[in-house]
Amino acid sequence: MNTIDKLSIDTIRILSAEAIQKANSGHPGMPIGAAPIAYAIWKNMNHNPKDPSWRGRDRFILSAGHASMLEYSLLHLYGYDVSMDDIKQFRQLGSKTPGHPEFGHTCGVEATTGPLGQGFAMAVGMAIAESHLAAKFNRAGFNVVDNYTYVLTGDGCMEEGVSGEAASLAGTLKLNKLIAVYDRNRITIEGSTDLAFSENVAARFGAYGWQVITVDDGNDLDSIENALHLAKRQDKPTLIIVDTKIAYGSPKEGMNSAHGSPLGEENIRLMKQKLGFDYDEPFTVPAQVYANFSRLAEKCAEPQSAHAQLMKAYKTAFPALYKEWEEYHAPVDVESLINDREFAEFDEKVATRAASGKILNLLARHIPNMFGGSADLAPSNVTEIKGEGYYSPDSPKNRNIHFGIREFAMAAICNGIMLYGGLHAYCATFLVFADYLKPALRLSALMKLPVIYVLTHDSIGVGEDGPTHQPIEQLASLRATPNTRVFRPADGKETSAAYMSALNADCPTVLALSRQGLPTLEATSFEAMRGGYVIKAADGAPDVILIASGSEVELALKAAPVLEEKGIRTQVVSMPCTELFDAQSDEYKESVLPKAVRARVSIEAASSFGWQKYTGLDGANVSLDTFGASAPAGKLFELFGFTVQNVVDTAIRTVDSLK
Amino acid sequence: MNTIDKLSIDTIRILSAEAIQKANSGHPGMPIGAAPIAYAIWKNMNHNPKDPSWRGRDRFILSAGHASMLEYSLLHLYGYDVSMDDIKQFRQLGSKTPGHPEFGHTCGVEATTGPLGQGFAMAVGMAIAESHLAAKFNRAGFNVVDNYTYVLTGDGCMEEGVSGEAASLAGTLKLNKLIAVYDRNRITIEGSTDLAFSENVAARFGAYGWQVITVDDGNDLDSIENALHLAKRQDKPTLIIVDTKIAYGSPKEGMNSAHGSPLGEENIRLMKQKLGFDYDEPFTVPAQVYANFSRLAEKCAEPQSAHAQLMKAYKTAFPALYKEWEEYHAPVDVESLINDREFAEFDEKVATRAASGKILNLLARHIPNMFGGSADLAPSNVTEIKGEGYYSPDSPKNRNIHFGIREFAMAAICNGIMLYGGLHAYCATFLVFADYLKPALRLSALMKLPVIYVLTHDSIGVGEDGPTHQPIEQLASLRATPNTRVFRPADGKETSAAYMSALNADCPTVLALSRQGLPTLEATSFEAMRGGYVIKAADGAPDVILIASGSEVELALKAAPVLEEKGIRTQVVSMPCTELFDAQSDEYKESVLPKAVRARVSIEAASSFGWQKYTGLDGANVSLDTFGASAPAGKLFELFGFTVQNVVDTAIRTVDSLK
Questions:
Q1: pTM, two decimal places
Q2: What DSSP string runs through B100-119?
Q3: Which residues numbered 102-131 in B keep a CB inside 8 Å of some CB on A?
Q4: B598 and A CB contact within 8 Å
Q5: Phi, psi of B214 (to 5 degrees)
Q6: Among A315, B26, B59, B271, which residue is least crowded by beta carbons within 10 Å?
Q7: What is the ipTM of this complex?
Q8: Model confidence over A158-202: pLDDT tens digits?
């Protein structure tokens, strides 16, 4: 390693350790041990600190998000909008340098990471997006989409199942522009990886169909760079395994205590001494190091001007394609879609999953950059875009994706696709298996990505498959998640409303859809985009309000005339999306749920958990707070009280109890 | 294959297809294709249909739970308590033959399966339990614990990340009595596995450290049986890959349409013809087949009498060990633990995670069969049983487990350990990563297994690690799950109460524990086992009730005197476990939360979702309904309003709004 490379790498090590020391909190071990790896990657990446959102840039994801200071050090040194003051504010309130990298918060950070394994899977998503867009837009001599995706992982990411799921798919898909670098320091919090992780990772990735390159010495910059070059010469993804020492050069080298706690000032002093870093003052960046990074930043930004030239020529040569390219990156014109009558027309009776299938196919015609699929349940989820074929190494232009039976990786991959830009990602499975993908959905929410989750078979309507396949608590779990919209539409029209609400949102949207056929209701409309609305008003001030969602709206509408016959004035509210309803004005909410009316009954074939927000201490909930059972759906709805009779009885009891 | 074997296997195929046909629902493809595999396994297993809970039996898990009819057919034919009428009632309300196998519901079913990959991981747990108990109890000439665990998986189980996590750990742990058989029919719902799953599974499992045996022809019974014998001659786990044809012998052979829909009557007729099965009448079991299974049942039950003899001799030879053996299988004497003062004594200030560590270590002394660990966070979760060492191939007797960074597999493995019997399993990670393990926790709940989930770092008290590590919606998500107790104790004493409540429960218990120190409160006690209780009564009828959990109970107690000074009579309720509170008598609940008092304020540093059940339409929630942030914990509590001042202000506003 030459002198300036070494000094630059040591600066990253020490800057990271010092910031963590000042914060008295953080993970110094990996930034110190993996500094040469990150240095090598960034040196070889195309990116431009002056234009961090340049579309042609290579992507870098720090999957081992706890090593955040490694990324912040690089961002600072390369001249991104992360100042030395920001570095000194590591992990402090409101700083640009939070504990784990946060997309949308710190310029240059491509993905929010920390929950292990997901950064890896998001990188797979980015590589899928790149290859799909390249197939769509590139023409001979015009590789307008042409970048690599780099992901830096640690032992933790490798142990998590989600990275295995994603790696297996990446191998099948031959994502040759995906380069994963594994900082193998063989130390986790509880000690050596031998304790729980003795597998041969290289052989495992070979089995997935990856090229695997091993670098024995984590300080051998040339070998790392050489491996990065070799990675680009294959028709498959590459894993570069680099053996490193956690907290290299410090007295805590090789120790698990270096993973998640500051080294201590004395240890930093000793590390500086050992590395030959002659600057006592904390947060010192030698001038020649700044100069080196400045030179590197200029060099790595060079491809951008060439790319700008290329895009200009492309615009002339392929004006129609260029227009499409612009459209791919523009928001959807939702207004015009809402005015399109197709989205409001459904058969007399249709399962909302089937309505969703119709809408998705209509949308695919209007929005050419819809891209997604199911975790092997496409026929059940009704998510196939017809006539489009499936994305594969031989046909990367196709818009349907076979994710395989990998719900978690699927959702993380969709996050990666959205992060890449230019595409609208959706994914699908059964609602009950939202549990399998939830950690990735949480990151969609945190990153404000409008991934659409098509989750069908939304209740005991699942029927015979029984309690393992019947969601009970999933709606509550998803509704409780910040910045997430959960839509449980009553019919096709409300399903359209859900999609319209989802498209330009700054949050993910869950569509909870029925397996069974539901009647197309007269009173439903795009008003559903308000989250909750009156679909049957009472004649005068209501005596009772029935609040229902999804398949149970029909029940409420059927119960209403029975109650009215008994002289109970009944208002029926369809509440497909509580989050959107909560965001309405107080006046609007009062019109839907007048405060004075305390007799309120919620009806939803799922846990009552959370409905008391609307029904209060005096209301009642027609709900299912135990697990379901295996039987034909009709029998189950009856067994568990989802009948007109039970709704009527419950409403009467509620009204009576308030007299 | 000899005639009777073939006829027996074909009977399984046809019985399964016919039951699915009658139900007009189910998954015929795998039962038909994998019938020889299951036949071979059961033929070679030690088990006794007349005593299905015999402790020395080999375990069988159908990880591909959708092939339930395969298991029901075998249970019926072997003479378990599954009659032909039960078979005819497949997937009907209340039958013994639900859509997916359910533990505790159908005699002979060892685990509830269906959510893919988890059966495999539970089998790993069973094999861990077996080796641990064997190390503890076996003596030369007395292998009182000595059984194999068989798990039958399909392509889906192999694609799910959780099986990879569990397989990697099983390899590290050299679980040589674990035999996985992979029915590789290469067909999933969306089509050929080539579409999304082209990896080399054999090489992958080799990389994990497994023996891998491949059988090319799924109808080659001898080769399958031979592989089962070879599996027993290794010091590592074995994967037997058997290439089969989905729906073998039927016109839908090799087609994905055979996976999840009945074959159709005509196809069953044609299948019978092709297989040479000469019985037109549905649900026919030829007499010679019943005779064959009867003979097999007797043979496979033979080891039980030998084992009974062995146990008798063991009792004489090792009376103390035998007594321990009995104790391992008896409920815990919780009453006597509660009366043990050690469990009520804590320092003035202690994080509940640290209190939990103390309690766990005390319990480990009283309960020798506590067995568990963390997903690589033991130092943070404070879950190590001190002086016990770690379970490993060299020291299987040790009681701490290194699960590795594999939350999902960890929880599924704990389910397997509990299912095996004789052990109390616990596992640990951060509360926010409950999301990663939730699908297995759901199965704990469904199977009524009292797994203890030690989930620390339970709020923004996490501090600097930031929003990816700060739980918000997790408490709501877990509370909404049926048959699950979520405890968020206010101090050490309530943490003890949580453990006491958990030990003999017929449900899993989540302990949500603080990272930060909390004062040991004067008013807390084992009353916490009622879920919610008054820890500060008002002087007379209360004007306001403050309901808090965990770290926020202190806040409520501090706010009370401030409110009282202003003439507002304040009752403070500690509510560590809403599920237990809900189960109390109406009188008790009225004493804690009098209906007449509408001014109620919940205080919990997490989503308000669900708290309105107790605070109603007139109450208020001091809560956090957005994601957190990265900063020192103290700053975050202040920023998000978890201050005495805000609690006081909120209470006053609530009281005033009702005037």
A1: 0.98
A2: S--TTTSTT--S---STTHH
A3: 102, 112-116
A4: yes
A5: -115, 135
A6: A315
A7: 0.98
A8: 999 999 999 999 999 999 999 999 999 999 999 999 999 999 999
